[in-house]
Every structure is written in C-alpha cells, then in structure tokens.
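Thread: "does anyone have the structure for this chain?"

Original post by V.I.:
We have the sequence but no experimental structure in hand. Need at least a predicted one for the grant figures.
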Amino acid sequence: MRSLLIRSIIKSPVTIDGPAADEHAVKELVAKLDNAARRVLGRSLSIREVDAGSCNGCELEIHALNNPVYDLERFGLRFVASPRHADVLLVTGPVTKNMRVALERTWNATPDPKWVVALGDCACSGGVFAGSYACAGAVSEVVPVDLTIPGCPPRPIEILKGLLTLIDAASRTGAAKGAGR
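Reply from O.Q.:
Generated one for you, tokens below.
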C-alpha cells in the first residue's frame, strides 16, 4: 500500500491538457457580454441552469464557466439557485416525460423579461434521444426557446458567444427592462 502511494505521488497524472483558452479573447467576450447585460437589464445577468434529462456533458462545460479560466463571477455574470432570481433559463438535455412539468413550472416562475436557451444537441433537437418513449422532445416543444446553442457538448466559449448574441438581439427588439414577451 505504501509503495502504491509513493508511486502515485512521484508519477505525474495520466491526462491530456485541455484546449488553451485565449485569455484576451475570453476577457473581451465576457466584457462585451457584461456591458450588454447592464445595458439591457440595468444590472448583471442571472442564469438558472435546468437539466431536463441530459447526460451531464453540457453541465461539465457549464461548470467550466465558473472555473479560474473563465470565472464569470468577476464579470457580473452569475448562476442562481432559484428561477425567481433568473433572467435566463439555460436548459440542457432532451426534456424527459418526468421533467416536463418541472420545466414548465420553472419557466412560469421566472419573471419577465426572461429568455430560454436550449444548450446542446439534445436540447435543440432531441439529439440521440429523439423519438424515445421516455422523452417529450426538444426544449422548444415544452417552452418557448429564444436561442439554441448546438454542440455535443458546446464549449464554454460557444456558450458565452450565444449569451452575447441573445442579449444583443434582446436589446435590438426592445425586450428589455420589463417589456416582457
């Protein structure tokens, strides 16, 4: 046992390095996102993540948004625990029949103005689970979707670009500061 412990301390982990994030590009993108959120909402953007039946691949990429590389909290973007405090519902996975009512209730509990983002191939179209007896379908079949971000799973930078696109579109259509749907 001792020799195994010593070998594990001396030997480096057998993993590969992740893709290098361009620090300047990330800062620039998040700064644009923060400015747009403040312009449209008058404050930072609050995001509620809803797992409607995913494989957790998309959740891993969402969690990466809070790691030291992206660290969204420093830019005023934050994930909230309650839909009552959220501006954006970030929905992953195909909506299972068991999660349909929960997603509808979450959408109803989110105050206006609110936006729904379908994140990942499964949320956009049902993905590999499309047509399954256990799935109600894509997110758009249960609640109105404002933006889809395809990918299996989409990378954190793609999620940031999608959120920026959503806020820019909302500012152009006037769906800001209580205008509702």
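V.I.: this helps a lot. Residues 177-181 have pLDDT under 50 and may be disordered.
O.Q.: and The first strand starts at residue 46 and ends at 51.
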